[in-house]
Amino acid sequence: MLVLGIFSLMTAVALPNVHISPILLTRVASIVLLYSAALSFNALDIQAIGSGVSIYSGLFQVTSVSQAMDTFIFLVGAMILIPWAPVTKSFVSHSRTLLTSVPTIAEYPLIILFTTCGASFLVSSADLVSIYLSIELQSFAVYILAALYRESESATSAGLKYFLLGGLSSGLILLGSALIYAFTGLTNLESIYSILSVGTVDSLTSGLGPCAIGFTILAVGFLFKVAAAPFHNWAPDVYDGVPTIVTTWLTIMPKISIFVLLLELQNGLGLTGASLTLMFNDIPFDVWKNLLLVSSLMSLIIGTVVGLAQYRIKRLFAYSTISHVGFLLLALAVNSEESIESFLFYIVQYSITNLNAFLVILAFGYVLHSSVGRSDGNGTDIQFISDMAGQFRANPLLGLALTVCLFSMAGVPPLIGFFGKQMILYSATHSGYYFLSIVAIIVSVISASYYLKIVRVIHFDSGEVDSNTSTLPQESKLTNVHSFAIATLTMVITLFVFKPSIILNSTSLLALTLFQY
């Protein structure tokens, strides 16, 4: 369905005599993603998928985890697309050459479908070739997305930086894959795992040694993609430079697909039970686990400490994301049944909370008049935390929704973010990772200070109105769908405690499928 939607939009955009408005194409792309999510969800009822189904000569492996995450990716993608405000003539004439936070380019939804297609392929990849091609399909579309607003100097600079450093991480992935292929002659992951799980480490030049190095380089490339420390330096600059509506996509979608791929790389692909865990049993020093633990520790510390000094809203959220990546890597490194359950749950709650936070920031950008007069090329984007000063008085519901999201990110009970962190810390302490658990608790408390700084600015600071700026036209106000999306996600974050079984049961069953052998 997704591929059919891509071909349909390509045809619609390419027709010379037919003009279709960008907002209509965006709505069509949203419908395509929703329908794809429904098809993926229905496929979970097929019994054979529970044990894994190999398709296209082993290039892809369809499992319960990949199908469930496909459904989640499509739903999140549709929710990112749906709330965008329509572009009207009066709004365009009002903003003139300033770039707005709304999709004004017809090719925008087409690029979104391409990157979603790459993410869908990536979570099901079971071959080194399909992994590389899938992540490049996703990455190339995201590169274009980051630099789509060509008249914006900051967006162009951020897109170029993202492209160059993304190319470096892709080169690392290709190098790791080449090392593995050179010493095994295989690209299928199941075949590689099966051969190496019965081998021994004789030296670094024969047997399992080069493949361990290859998988380590492969992991470094993926950690680069998800902005895990110490490979995080590109993320704050890119997230801050691109328009907020693109930042929403960058902070959520690539991370879901890459983390699910890392999970399936580590715990096998469903048919033979072979996995990196079994493969590294013969190595005295578990390179994979220790790489994840070190990266987790650095992400937790750097994402929290450096975030304290930020005064630009998107840079602060970038460091917040790095801190959340540290929690995810900790759960992935522990690799017990309860830690994988907490890992899957944390992905879900992280995506929901971040999506809602960025939707609210977009909404503030639409309703605030002070950002329209800027010449930074970002139009209605909010750049500084101080831009939202006193907005609780003007827009109490939006201020309350953002406060709920920030408290959830900080791990304040009884919001959904608290349960995500609690589950990861519980599984880590059960497995004996006391030091990392203590560090995670400390940085979680410290990170609450920069979330509370935003809350203080919104609720207690007094905003200043610039007399040189005019208010936005009525057409730029929030759409009903945008408002409904914010309300729904806020209710999910707040009321999760009253009905937790819906998400918890799903993540528990998915974790069980990975540990059935």
Automatic annotation (TrEMBL):
User: So where does this one cross the membrane?
Assistant: 24-44, 65-85, 105-124, 131-150, 162-183, 204-224, 256-279, 291-311, 317-336, 343-368, 397-420, 432-452, 481-498
Q: Does the keyword Mitochondrion apply?
A: yes
**Coiled coil stretches, renumbered:** none
Location of this chain's protein in the cell: Membrane
Q: Which UniProt keywords apply?
A: Membrane, Mitochondrion, Oxidoreductase, Transmembrane, Transmembrane helix
Ranges for domain NADH:quinone oxidoreductase/Mrp antiporter transmembrane: 125-447
Family stated for the protein in its record: Belongs to the complex I subunit 2 family.
PANTHER family xref list: NADH DEHYDROGENASE (PTHR22773)
User: What's the name of the protein?
Assistant: NADH-ubiquinone oxidoreductase chain 2
In its UniProt entry, the species of origin is given as: Tremella fuciformis
Question: Upper taxonomic classification of the species?
Answer: Eukaryota, Fungi, Dikarya, Basidiomycota, Agaricomycotina
